[in-house]
Design goal:
The chain is an alpha+beta fold. Helix content is 13%, strand content 30%. It has 14 helices and 48 strands. Strands 40, 41, 42, 43, 44, 45, 46, 47 and 48 form a nine-stranded mixed sheet that branches. Strands 4, 5, 6, 8, 9, 10 and 12 form a seven-stranded antiparallel sheet that branches. Strands 30-29-28-27-26-32-31 form a seven-stranded parallel sheet. β38 and β39 form a beta hairpin. The relative contact order is 0.07.
Length: 936
Amino acid sequence: MSEQVGCGIDRRSVLKTVSGASAAAAGIVAAATGPEAGAVPVLPATSPDGSWAEPSTVPVEEGWLAKRLAAGDSGERFSGPGTGFSVDGWIRARVPGTVLATLADRGLVPDPYFGLNNLQIPDAGEVGVGQYTYWFRTRLDVPKTAGRHNGRVFLDLRGVNYKADVYLNGSRITPEPLTGMFLRRKLDVTGAVRPGGENVLAVLVTPPDPPGDPRSGVGEFEPAGTSCQGGDQLIGRSVTAQVTAGWDFWQPVRDRNTGLWDRVSLNFTGPVVFASDPKITTEIAWRGSLATRAVVSVTASARNTAATAFPAQLQVRIGKRTVKGDPVTVGAGETKVLTAAVTVDDPQLWWPHGYGTPHLYPVTVDLLGEGRQSQTYRADIGIRELSSAVDPTTTGRKFTVNKTPVFIRGGAWVTADALLRLSARNYDDQVRLHQQANLNLIRVWGGSITERPEFYQACDKYGVLVWQEFWVTADCTAGSSNPADRQLFLDSARDAVRMLRNHPSLCLWVGGNEGPPPGDLDSRLSALVQAEDGTRPYVSYSTDPDAGLGTGGQFSDGPYGILYPFQFFDGTWTEHRTSTGAPQPFTPETGSVGTPVAETIRAIMSKADAEDFPKVTQATWPPNKAWNFHLWIPFFAGDSTTKDQLVLYQQPATLDEFCEQAQAAQYQQYKAMFEGRNAAMWRWYTGGVIWRSAPGWTGLRGQLYDWHLEQTGGYWGVRKAGEPLHPQLDLSNLAVAVVNNTRQDSKPTHLTITVVGPDGRVIEDKTRQQDIGSVPAAGQQTVTSLADVLTPNAFQLVKLQLRDRRGRLVADNTDWLYNAPGPQPDLAYAPLRNLARSHVTAHATRGGSSEGTVEIVLRNHSDVIAFHVRIQLVGARSGKRVTPFFLTDNYLTLLPGESRTVQGHFHENLHEQTELLISGWNASLEDSGHIPIRQG
């Protein structure tokens, strides 16, 4: 029978009327008759006579509808095929996704990331969880062969938040609600599906309860001098993402991420199935530092779902090699452990970024029943040896990969998107941004989610290590009463370990943020990780001094505001010290400013709010409500800690000037943050993590790129400090050093030191040339000092250039400073705002690649520098930014007569041609900087 389709929904039941929104724009199903559109396509599963269907997994992502729970609703009726179901009042739903993401997609709530819109959306903690208790419904096409000859059909739910009642074909198939945001569910629906017939799935999803109140007695959460770390802490009772109740960097997510937030799929198997994810480990045989052989071992628990015994075994394929394990008879309903191992001679190793290639081996593990494929598991593994422990020299945590110490340059990550609109491509883009910033570790913060396999696949691909925290924050433990259901927490943790343990990028399990899991959870988590993984350490919490992550005291992290750049070199950037008086050797969080470019500011708030940029001092804080609501932090710290680094250039008159100066200040701040650690590598420090590297929403603090994936000036400073061979100037004592960020001694180079005066012209008699010998691997070498070269009490710009023996540029680095001890005087950097115009030319040539590539050649034809030359990619017709744009350099300073070549990569724009838009503080370019990209 055809399902009857109607239309109409009372938007006022969701929110006050959104003016100008039509039913079509909202995605409300239009009136029509006939089968529902968007039924899930399932590839036919074929098999030889007398055998079950070939195993396959099919995503269930299309054709979903949603509606809020109402009196009289019935899951049996909603899931009953041929019952005359009407979609009247239902809306098209995003799955994977959340209720709020669906409502935003459909225009039923305003974009929560824009301006003050989030204040218009009802909060679950204020109005109750019923506001976001929703049905999700779709049709499934199940092939006729499914379930034959002892074959099974499973409904896999990779993430439901928070409770779910599941109905299929008119029957409830979950006697009790499925509970927990992070516990995957595999439901055997073999007896409930109708192969070749009509199948309807309905799921009722309820938010975490209690959802927590973000106001926490301080009024609507707008942290201008207030703090809302999880609101009233009640969100911590559930095993869910605590950040959704609001934090000092994150506005509340009004539905608390309720929904089918991760993948839903149908899994067709034979009778013998994996009881959990197979465990794949590697053991390397070494001859000195050379890996000569590796054994890849696979262990899997096999469960027999049939009524009769089956012989089962593992078949493992790596490249051209296929190995079978010993067969084991698995009785009806039994679960037994199977093993197999493959030897790889002369293995190519997986290395973290900067230390080598992150080589991956595709592995296929077939579970055979009676010699036939019953289920398949696939993974890309990395052969590598990993450890971490407290370094006795510094007392910081030291990470080692393949017998090589790795100096950690990390970024803290909350999630890719606050509304959990996740995709493999977005994960790939964001992890690639981290890798190209020369970061080699991402810390997944405990107040958010267990990151998804697609995130880890990107980290595996790009060689970015990951430390993964469980769902504990010191802010939301409520003494020791949270979480309420300890067993659910442990079950979820066990499942997370099994899901992620085969990823080579995963390097550390951490119990919680800034405090251990309460009660006996800590010891039980430690034992669980050892039993289920056993190849990586477990650390109780992110600032644990016993693990080399703190220096005593629970909150030995931070600071979180801007500092004078020289402080990162002389060690005064932190109050946390070791017993020897040295600065904290490994910091899990060091935060600072994060103001995006002007184009982004205009995209996330009204024109009036954007142009009313902060003109604040400590006495006039806070800025206007929109900037404050997006959690902007200033370029000063306290009354006297750090004077405003943005107005050192001048008092900006426009938003564009404000954001230009913000990028310059951030470039200087973040570059110094990492260069200071370079200067005392292995002497004071083993590494550190910035808070935060990724935005997750349209916030205005602590980020290296913005919601639109455009990099800030701080991003390019971080990238510069972490380049393989890096010349740098110590801003505390004017020493010049060369830093080797690789695992091999460097080749000899030649260093040119150029000093530029306040007028932007080179001071020729201060130019210095010096040959540089080999710099040890993962180390640094001081080569000279400019203490007697730079003019005292004056502004100067210093450029360092390293070239190889053929004269080719290896690396360069630019600093600007007022050469005097202590804080800079007012308007110390004003000369950069008063430079004469420089004539810059640019040429762009298209390259051949599976993605868009462009080679950009810039040249300064003037006798003054061209300061902070910025490269953008835009639509040639629309002028709209194209992001992300992966460049090898940006915000360049070009000396007189200097030419630089920059490589760019981007996703092809299928809608219009692209061109470059190039600008600079004092750069003059033809056609207002619009540069066509010519075919190479």
